[in-house]
Specification:
The complex is a heterodimer of chains A (389) and B (629). Chain A is built from 16 helices and three strands. With 389 residues, chain A is mainly alpha-helical. Chain B has two domains: 175 residues, Penicillin-binding protein 2a (Domain 2) (Alpha-Beta Complex), CATH 3.90.1310.10; 326 residues, 3-Layer(aba) Sandwich (Beta-lactamase). In chain B, helix 10 runs antiparallel to helix 22, helix 14 crosses helix 16 and helix 16 crosses helix 19. At the A-B interface, helix 9, helix 12, helix 13, helix 14 and helix 15 of A face helix 1 and helix 2 of B.
């Protein structure tokens, strides 16, 4: 019923539009993309970032073509995942939301019990043929389940539903925080909270929640691991420990600062090439970009991120169902939060939490998740007008 | 069920607006956050650009010293005496190692370091600062270099360093003349220009190596290199090459040096041979000697203690520092003093009954020949080394005049030879005795001085130098080991030239000639104490034998060489210059506990003369044991 009513508000022009174009004998990109359930703006933004990523990785990885090839394979996989998800009707996701969430939580528990340890944290689940991080699934499962749950009933949600939603967020966040993977836990928490925020929770409640969070900080501090505390401490005074925890921040600030307005030029960055900059292909790749392409390059990069997010927000605003709006909005904003947390960390505004720069950093896991998110966004957008029978 | 959809429809529209408002809010909030990021980036990249740019440059640019190659040292024939050979050593910069003990333990595993080496390393570590490289092992084999290279990634701050180290191909032969280099120690650190010694581990410690350090060292170069975080060089940015030190060409002659060392044989002692025409040191041997190569890479304290505590004192440079009573080799100078100061004439005759007594004193100063020489004049007294003649002469001169005259020949003074550590010897005077001993000078001491005993102490080089001065009739040249230098940018040798320091104020050449004639009589006279070395020569030698008592023998005590410990044997001495007509060389030979100057020291001098002048002797010249003093 509601779908039909919605159709009336936005009369479907798609069919006639397609028919008009069919008369012209040339390849119809728009029609092709529409049929493939892809969004041209998002695709352009994503491809721009991935191409730029290849350029930067070639430099930061020491001009290693093998490394570039491996990343190319991952990009292909991630794009495939995105295209596949774009074909899935949002309603199907809605149907399986709780199942995905449930399985995800079970896997997180499994990770804590049997997971493989890498870099001091237990994040990986080894299924024999396949190693993956269940926390990545939760990056999408949490906003999905919260959006579906909250949109079941009229918005804004009641206190009871709000409480349940927060519980749905808290369970995976605590499980991931225990691994310990503080960065991912915070990002997943924020992606869930963004849904709550978008659902129209009153400002009064939001303010109260923020105050609660602030007062919870000392408790959180108590539960932190030593290395996490050190990272927070060195954030405030990185020079106090230049060879230890502060080293990352000092070196990355030097790399960024020495880039200046124009940068040293591609392949000319000294800090990265001379191995002063740690994690230069992964978490700290932003500093490599800063050093080689300067402020101008960074502003262009940030603009691309903002444009992608803006497109995501537009898609959210155009979505027909509340859960779609909530989910799309969360995906778009979370994407920007990733960028903000990574850039904030590299520039020394935020603690070092180990969040890669979206779609630029070397590595496959986060890219697959991000592009899966964009697949969902595209699905939401492109299935909009195809709903009428 | 009917109400429900309508209810939802209304809500849905409102919901849409609610969520859209929140989306707009989130978008604006995001822009704000990125405003902060951009502000931060502007701060870092524009405002503080200079600061971070200089930090970045400091991060990557390292200045590495390029140590100069030390100059080589050659003998007069161009035979290499000191060279630089490549060697690989394993070095650690403690500052760049996170856990030094662990690293050393792992290195010990890898290269099977001995506990001794580890202890030595720890000892060195205390003497160096954290940013200085410390050697773990020197002279790595090819296999060890390869083994470490493969494992290098495990050892940040540890590296194999290729260096040139000093090598003395002639081993101990030139140890006391050329000297050696060794690790720069703390005191030297304070003196040297540290800038100029960056990257250089060794410095001249003794001999020519020390004296000519400035010339041999050269000047340091630099190269600016890009380094990575582990301090490993990635590429060179700029380099200013070092200037090699100048090569030195010595007066020393390896053949003479070898001959002298061989001739001394098992004896301790010293041979110094000078070129009378320019002061060039042709041979400088001090026995026993040591291998200078042991010091180059740092001698172990055990080995050093063994050298230091050796009762034979191999490290002691006898040629420059050995104090020996000159004995009868002093007599030509005393004779010249007597003639010049009119105490005697060439014709003055003295009766030698075998002893001499001062007027009004019964103490008998013995002549070495107990039966006496009878009537002697200058010539026969010199030839037979009559002590009584010289007791009388010294008595007539008095110590003041004698001391003043001997001063002219450099007794009691450094000769100024161009290697460090020379001793002044001792030429006693009334004043000296008052100052040092707080005693009056006794007339008997003048007599003893007259035959080169008593307080007199001379060094072998002093004796050679004085003999050369005598042979040149008063022209004094400073003894010099280095003949010429050669730098890379110049062709040919830069000759240093002779350093004529003085001409003695002696007026009558007849006095010179008389003394020289008497010395010729020593070698060529019928009764000369060194006549056995005067055969088969195309020219004449002027010489003087000497036998110096190691300790005083009580009055009338029978001197029995057989029953005395070898250590208590007399020192055998001989001085000579040749050819008499136109002197080219002057020699002093001192054989510790050799017994007789005539029998032991003189043949050594003859051997050197033969080598120098290329004389083929038909038979080995044997010391004539029957001639004693």
């Amino acid at each position: 019923m509601s779908q039909l009513l919605n159709e009336r508000r936005n009369p479907p022009r798609t069919m006639s539009h397609l028919q008009d174009r069919r008369r012209v004998p040339r390849f119809e990109w728009n029609a092709f993309l529409q049929r493939m359930h892809l969004d041209a703006y998002l695709i352009m933004g994503i491809l721009a970032l991935l191409c730029f990523s290849a350029v930067v990785l070639y430099s930061s990885g020491g001009e290693d073509l093998a490394l570039l090839f491996r990343q190319g394979v991952r990009m292909t996989i991630a794009i495939t995942v995105m295209i596949i998800l774009a074909q899935v009707h949002p309603d199907r996701l809605k149907d399986v939301a709780f199942w995905i969430y449930g399985v995800g939580v079970l896997m997180l528990i499994a990770v804590l019990l049997f997971g493989t340890i890498g870099k001091g944290a237990q994040r990986w689940l080894d299924l024999g043929f396949f190693r993956f991080q269940p926390s990545e699934i939760m990056k999408l499962a949490v906003p999905l389940v919260v959006a579906v749950y909250l949109a079941e009933r009229p918005l804004p949600p009641t206190m009871t539903r709000l409480f349940v939603a927060l519980l749905l967020i808290a369970i995976p966040v605590l499980l991931i925080g225990k691994q310990p993977d503080l960065g991912t836990a915070l990002l997943i928490g924020s992606s869930g909270l963004i849904v709550v925020f978008l659902s129209g929770v009153s400002w009064r409640l939001l303010t109260g929640f923020l105050v609660l969070c602030a007062s919870a900080a000392p408790v959180l501090w108590y539960f932190m691991h030593d290395y996490q505390r050190r990272r927070v401490m060195t954030l405030f005074n990185p020079e106090s420990d230049p060879l230890g925890a502060g080293y990352h921040i000092i070196q990355s600030k030097i790399a960024i600062g020495s880039g200046g307005l124009h940068g040293r030029g591609w392949l000319q960055g000294t800090q990265s090439h001379l191995e002063f900059l740690p994690e230069r292909s992964t978490d700290f790749i932003f500093a490599v970009i800063a050093e080689e392409f300067g402020l101008i390059g960074l502003i262009i990069l940030i603009c691309v991120y903002l444009l992608i997010t803006a497109r995501g927000l537009y898609i959210a605003s155009q979505a027909q169902m509340s859960y779609m709006k909530l989910l799309a909005g969360s995906i778009a904003i979370t994407f920007l939060v990733y960028v903000f947390v990574n850039v904030g960390m590299v520039t020394g505004l935020l603690p070092v939490v180990g969040v890669p720069l979206p779609l630029i950093s070397y590595g496959g896991t986060s890219m697959v998740t991000l592009l899966a998110g964009f697949g969902i966004l595209m699905s939401i957008h492109t299935h909009r007008r195809m709903m009428s029978p | 069920m009917v109400m429900d959809p309508r209810h939802r429809l209304k809500d849905h529209f409102r919901e849409g607006r609610l969520v859209s408002n929140r989306l707009i809010f989130a978008g604006i909030f995001s822009l704000l956050l990125f405003g902060i990021i951009i502000f931060r980036l502007v701060m870092l990249q524009i405002v503080d650009y200079e600061h971070f740019d200089s930090l970045a440059n400091r991060n990557r640019v390292d200045i590495e010293p390029l140590p100069p190659q030390r100059g080589l040292i050659y003998d007069r024939n161009g035979v290499l005496l000191a060279e630089n050979i490549p060697t690989f050593s394993l070095e650690v910069i403690p500052e760049k190692v996170s856990n030094l003990d662990e690293t050393i333990a792992e290195l010990a595993d890898l290269l099977s370091l001995t506990q001794e080496e580890i202890d030595a390393f720890n000892e060195r570590r205390k003497r160096h600062r954290a940013f200085e490289e410390i050697v773990v092992r020197n002279q790595l084999t090819q296999r060890e270099v390869a083994l470490f290279s493969v494992n290098r990634h495990r050892f940040p701050g540890v590296d194999v360093v290729g260096r040139l180290i000093r090598h003395y191909p002639q081993g101990p032969l030139f140890a006391h003349a050329v000297g050696y280099v060794g690790r720069i120690n703390q005191q030297e650190m304070e003196i040297i220009d540290r800038q100029d010694y960056k990257g250089t581990l060794q410095i001249g410690k003794t001999g020519v190596e020390k004296q000519y350090e400035d010339i041999l060292h050269g000047s340091v170069g630099y190269r600016q290199v890009e380094t990575n975080v582990q301090g490993r060089t990635v590429r060179e940015l700029f380099s200013q090459p070092s200037t090699s030190g100048q090569d030195l060409y010595l007066h020393l002659d390896i053949n003479l040096q070898k001959a002298a060392a061989e001739a001394l044989g098992e004896y301790n002692g010293s041979v110094v041979m000078l070129d009378t025409r320019n002061g060039g040191v042709l041979a400088l041997v001090s026995k026993p000697d040591y291998d200078p190569n042991a010091f180059v890479t740092g001698i172990s304290s055990k080995d050093y203690a063994a050298l230091r505590d050796n009762p034979e004192q191999p490290l002691f440079n006898r040629a420059l520092r050995g104090h020996y009573p000159p004995g009868s080799t002093f007599k030509p100078f005393v004779a010249l003093a007597g003639l010049e100061l009119n105490a005697v004439t060439q014709q003055t005759r003295t009766y030698c009954p075998g002893f001499y007594s001062l007027p009004g004193n019964t103490h008998r100063y013995r002549c070495w020949k107990r039966t006496g020489h009878g009537h002697v004049d200058l010539k026969s007294a010199m030839a037979e080394s009559c002590d009584v003649y010289f007791y009388d002469l010294a008595h007539a001169l008095g110590i003041d005049r004698l001391h003043g005259f001997l001063d002219l020949f450099g007794f009691g003074h450094q000769t100024g030879v161009d290697i460090p550590g020379e001793s002044k010897g001792l030429s006693p005077s009334r004043e000296w005795k008052r100052n040092q001993r707080n005693q009056a000078w006794f007339p008997g001491e003048t007599l003893i001085s007259g035959i080169g005993q008593g307080f007199n102490q001379t060094t072998p080089i002093q004796l050679a130098h004085a003999t050369a001065t005598l042979g040149m009739m008063g022209t004094v040249y400073k003894p010099q080991l280095v003949r010429a230098t050669k730098s890379d940018d110049e062709d040919g040798l830069q000759l240093l030239g002779a350093q004529q320091s003085d001409s003695l104020p002696i007026q009558k050449s007849s006095n010179w000639l008389a003394v020289i004639e008497s010395m010729v009589e020593v070698v060529h006279g019928k009764r000369g104490t060194a006549r056995h070395i005067g055969t088969d020569l195309p020219f004449e030698i002027a010489g003087k034998t000497g036998t110096a008592q190691v300790f005083g023998i009580a009055q009338d005590a029978k001197y029995d060489a057989e029953t005395l410990e070898k250590k208590l044997h007399d020192h055998a001495l001989f001085v000579a210059f040749a050819p008499v007509e136109d002197p080219e060389i002057a020699i002093s030979v001192i054989v510790e506990n050799g017994g007789s100057g005539s029998a032991v020291a003189a043949p050594i001098a003859r051997k050197l003369i033969d080598v120098y002048f290329g004389i083929e002797t038909k038979q080995e010249i044997e010391g004539d044991e029957s001639i004693t003093e």
